[in-house]
Amino acid sequence: MGAAATAAFAVFGSALTLIGTGSVYKLNRTEDWRMLVQARVPFIVDVVPQSESSAQRPDARTAAQHLSNIRQVLNPAISDLAIAFGVSRQAIYKWLGDDVTPEPDKRERIIQLSRVADAFRDAGVSRASALLKMKAFDGRSLLDLLPEGKLRQEDAQTLIAEAKAMEAVYARSGLSASRAKPTTDWQASVSIPGSAE
């Protein structure tokens, strides 16, 4: 390959795209296409890989989508949501139907609770509805902390860790191999053992 082939590639803008004859290669995805091009055209790409946190896309879900996510993962009663958001049950139904949009402060609370639901889903927590009402934070649950504006992602992570610990204890107990009908009665839903209340 000569200088003409080398010159056919150029870096434009802020070094985000490599354009060739008939092809556009994004520099932030060099691992996908580098082997296809490097054998034909000599070039050096020194790209710092993006971390997952910097590659996150903004959350563009509507309030109705956030509420659907909350209902799907956490499965709270509509009356519990109404109490947590300080509105009537009819308002929750209107938000779910996308008929009305919530006020900005209530939308923020919806987004906070939806992020908790996302964390539970991503962690594979199967008993998210029970954890939602667990009085683990000075005698208060996640739904109790939400109206006070004290709900933090760390609280959700604490409950996720507790759920994983309970599942590990269940697996070690041998109850999963028992022929008796499985129950979740042995799992605490009142408080996290050993935590300060």
Description:
- With 197 residues, the chain is mainly alpha-helical.
- The protein has two domains: 56 residues, no CATH class; 114 residues, no CATH class.
- The protein is built from nine helices and three strands, in the order H-E-E-E-H-H-H-H-H-H-H-H.
- The chain has a three-stranded antiparallel beta sheet with strand order 1-2-3, with no helix packed on it.
- Helix 3 runs parallel beside helix 6, helix 4 crosses helix 5 and helix 4 runs parallel beside helix 8.
- The N terminus is likely disordered.
Low-confidence sequence ranges: 1-15
> Helix coverage percent of residues?
40-55%
| H/E series | HEEEHHHHHHHH
Largest sheet: 3 strands, antiparallel
What Rg do the Cα atoms give?
A: 25 Å
Anisotropy-based shape: flat
Distance between the termini: 72 Å
Q: What is the number of helices?
A: 9
Oligomerization state: single chain
The pLDDT mean sits at 75
Count of discrete structural domains: 2
| Binned strand content | 5-15%
Name the strands of the widest sheet in spatial order. Answer: 1-2-3
Q: Which class best fits the helix and strand makeup?
A: mainly alpha
Strand tally is 3
Biased composition (Polar residues): 184-197
Protein name: XRE family transcriptional regulator
Organism: Candidatus Accumulibacter phosphatis
Region (Disordered): 176-197
